[in-house]
Amino acid sequence: MHHPAAGRPAAPRSVASRRTTSPRDALGRFAAAVATAIGLAGLAVPVVAQQMPRERPAQPQRPASPSAGDLTRYNASVVRVDAKVPSDATSAQSLGPDRVGTGIILDDRTVLTIGYVTLEADAVMVTTASGKRIPATAAGYDHATGFGLVRTVLPLDGKPMPLGDSDRIRDKQRVLTLGHGEPEATEIFVLSRKPFAAGWEYLLESPIFTFPPVNNWSGAALIADDGSLVGVGSLIVNDAAAGQPGVPGNLWVPVNLLKPIMEDLLSKGRRAVGANPWLGMTTETVRGNLMVVRVTRNGPAEAAGVAPGDIVVGVAGEKVADQAEFYRKVWKVGPAGATIPLKLLKDGDVRDLAIKSIDRADHLKKAGGI
Questions:
Q1: Which phi and psi (to 5°) does residue 320 adopt?
Q2: Residue 28, in any domain of the structure
């Protein structure tokens, strides 16, 4: 998993060496990234790159959209989610035992959030926009998408937000975002729909990337112009644009991924069938190689002899070049429980290892109730 930043998971960190940069150079790169993002979105927004103040980067002035309307009308649909996780839980070390995020009301007792907020939680509290605090439970979690569902003990006093069609969200489209505690929704725009792969065995083929970045992203609502929910906030990233490095933004998990599994998450706490095989190994691309940087204690990879520093060469007789290709080929072998044949460069030798995969949910501490 990834490490928390200010209570919220941050973008994956590179293990490549870092060099020091002057503030002026950093500001110049920021200005160039802003100009690139605005150009990619096709917006006529003036940005002054050479006359930026030394103290902080200039923020582009975005013209208000005539269709935005009252930006406070969504406030009653967004809640604060507080979760407490046992210190011995698998995710406690990387995500912390006390977590805070945003949730979106789906019905009078169901709240949708990003799953790492409530993962392995044994106590959850939901605070509505009116200030009402309601005890809740972590009802379901899906590792493949990252979604989490919460069920409250008592009915919520807010307004449910309907699920929209996230497949209709396109580049350059204006959308709104709202996180808990914010006075009103904020207008942002879609920068790209491109695959996203991360070291914790996570791959989304078409997430939503937006610009400019917002700092209240964990579980925040991404709202289409018809008022429907189309995405849930997951990360802040530094490569939100397709083919243009260095453009910051946020990643949102599309809600269409929730629709086929929502009943399973509410009734069983997880998807009933089709869970991806989980190996329990974190990888990062280092100097063009897919390197194992961490293995989960008592996980399948550790049991098979995988160790940090090993380099993944192939899966089931096929070469792999990056994380996305690695996951696709692992998942093609079979569902959770399948034996995954890996070829690794280990201590200078190429070795074949067979890893008996499991469902990620089986390795997690079961969520507690009230």
A1: -125, 145
A2: no
